[in-house]
Design goal:
Layout: E1 2-10, E2 15-25, E3 31-39, E4 45-51, H1 54-70, E5 74-75
Antiparallel strand pairs: 1-2, 1-5, 2-3, 3-4
Length: 77
């Protein structure tokens, strides 16, 4: 479906982070929003949430991305 990768890099703060949001179908007909975040080069953390429709999942993913962009994350090129 869709995948978005964001980075936040600030050498002054020794910060190099990533945040990935992906919207995927699961085997049971629901839509999953997967979030994966952590330090670039590290293993990071993972969380998934299930939604009944694509529109609800897309709205949740967009809200997550807006929140991260407000915190200084930028879309990876």
């Amino acid at each position: 479906m869709s995948c978005q990768l964001l980075y936040r890099v600030d050498p002054d703060l020794n910060m190099a982070r990533f945040y990935r949001v992906e919207v995927l179908p699961d085997l049971f007909g629901d839509i999953i929003v997967e979030r994966h975040w952590g330090r670039i080069g590290g293993r990071g953390q993972f969380r998934a949430a299930s939604y009944r429709s694509t529109s609800l999942a897309d709205a949740a993913a967009a809200a997550l991305l807006r929140a991260k962009e407000r915190r200084g994350y930028r879309v990876a090129s």
